[in-house]
Amino acid sequence: MKIARMMVAKAKSIVVLTGAGISAESGIPTFRDAQTGLWAKHSPEELATSEAFERNPGLVWSWYAHRRAVVKLVQPNAGHYALVKMALNREFTLITQNVDSLHQRAGSQNVLELHGSILRAKCFTEGKIFHKWPETDKIPKCDCGAYLRPDVVWFGESLAKETLDKAFEVAQKCDLFISIGTSSLVQPAALLPLIAIKQGAQLLEINKEETSLTKYATHAVQGSSGILLPMIMGMWKYRLDVLK
Ligand code: BJW
User: Fold this and answer.
1) d(Cα 31, Cα 43) in Å, to the nearest integer?
2) Entry pTM
3) Collapsing DSSP states into helix, strand and coil, what is residue 116?
4) What residues contact residue 120 under an 8 Å CB cut-off, 6+ apart?
5) Nearest atom (ligand 1) to Cα of 211
6) What's the gap in Å between 155 CA and the centre of ligand 1?
7) CB of 199 within 8 A of CB of 172?
8) Could you tell me the CA-to-CA distances from 151 to 20, 26, 49, 166, 181 in Å, in that order?
9) Could you report the per-residue pLDDT of 132-159, keeping only the tens digit for each?
């Protein structure tokens, strides 16, 4: 912990990449946890591909509608808030694979959402973006007559070019890259920390368990991000909340 604190305190330019683990303590399930993960209960091929949507749009839309309802009910946790503090008085970019907007709700700005947002939808054929639509039992439709789909990146789909380019650019320039709560299995996001260390950055990993990235880390801390991040940022109020 002391090493992690020093790494963060010394860094002038930090890039953080978050995954589902940072939102786990807010009550949002991760994907690959063997018991509680979304992929333990549902097959990604049936729910998170455009072919799945074409095959069964009702199933896919209702699964995302349920997850959207959960996201709206929960709150950011101490890990999200600690990253707001980490951004102060230095170059800082927050890249997230999460689609839940909890970083923005905690107060983080200019978040690069690699995998889109569950709070937006887009026309399945033309890609027009929607921020609002009637929440009924039916799948909403675009003016052109096509179904709306969640504005998230499914397997086999390209990430938004501008967002991905910016993520690669900042990863190449930072002096500290912090990977938080991600299994580091999904590409191209998993490449970002490797690009950073290739350019000479230090790599700090914060995760409940070892991942395929751990062996590349300058330092790895195992534990919950909702506890470790406030400790790293010296936010003792949150630490005391945890001990209550
Ligand atoms: C805690 C914690 C706590 C828990 N505190 N820690 C090159 C090689 C191999 C494969 C590919 C490749 N290039 C492309 C691919 C295919 C594919 C891919 O990567 N597959 C791999 C799985 C093998 N990638 C793609 O298809 C991507 N597209 C692409 O590359 O386009 C170009 C292309 C097109 C066609 C052909 C080839 C190239 C798109 C990927 C889109 C991913 N989409 C999803 C769904 C988003 C929408 C939704 O939410 O439904 O994104 S899948 C899912 O995985 C979601 C996540 O963002 C993503 C990453 O998951 P994450 O966040 O790491 O979660 P978990 O559950 O895996 O891990 C949680 C971690 O937290 C664990 O480590 C815990 O220990 C930890 N943890 N509690 C700290 N409290």
Assistant:
1) 10
2) 0.95
3) strand
4) 129, 130, 131, 150, 151
5) 73
6) 8
7) yes
8) 17, 22, 12, 19, 22
9) 998 888 999 999 999 999 999 999 999 9
